[in-house]
Design goal:
Elements (H helix, E strand, L loop, with lengths): L15 H14 L4 H10 L4 H13 L5 H16 L3 H10 L4 H9 L3 H18 L5 H14 L4 H13 L1
């Protein structure tokens, strides 16, 4: 069994109890998903039996909750980074969150807030875009909004409303 050094102390993590204590405080610091915890524990060099045992203990103690993570992640990325639902969904899938929990997390984002954020993000980008040609400008803004994870139809509609006014 290989062991990776503990970055703070320089010692190896060999005891599953010590690993549990450290990972417990890591999970208490912010919401984590099972995949993040699993990756962290494996990086410390623990065997799969120990890793799965620690994860089930964390779930039992309510330090690890996929639903809570998904809702917090979706809300945070929407509010702080102004991500659209498509990008949030893709990132949650990367973290092995189930479709049911992804849908639940995305429902927590209010439709009115979502539309307001889309429009304000689009407005800022429109004003800052230096392209003078109207069609090229429209396409650049469209690509930007799609890269932020907003849906094609919603972006098209918002751009057409924005360019009419």
């Amino acid at each position: 069994m290989y062991r990776e050094n503990d970055s703070r102390t320089g010692r190896k993590i060999t005891d599953p109890r010590l690993a549990f204590t450290k990972i417990e405080s890591w999970c208490a610091y912010q919401e984590r998903c099972q995949q993040e915890v699993r990756d962290k524990l494996y990086s410390w060099g623990l065997y799969s039996d120990a890793v799965e045992s620690i994860i089930s203990e964390l779930i039992s103690a309510n330090f690890l909750n996929e639903e809570r993570f998904a809702i917090a992640y979706a809300g945070g990325k929407f509010r702080m980074k102004k991500w659209g639902k498509q990008k949030i969904k893709m990132e949650l899938k990367k973290r092995n969150i189930s479709e049911v929990l992804i849908r639940k997390a995305l429902k927590e984002i209010g439709q009115e807030d979502y539309e307001e954020t889309l429009e304000s993000t689009l407005s800022k980008k429109w004003k800052s875009e230096k392209e003078k040609h109207p069609l090229k400008k429209k396409m650049k803004v469209m690509r930007y909004m799609l890269s932020r994870g907003y849906e094609t139809d919603a972006v098209s509609e918002a751009i057409s409303k924005f360019t009419k006014s």
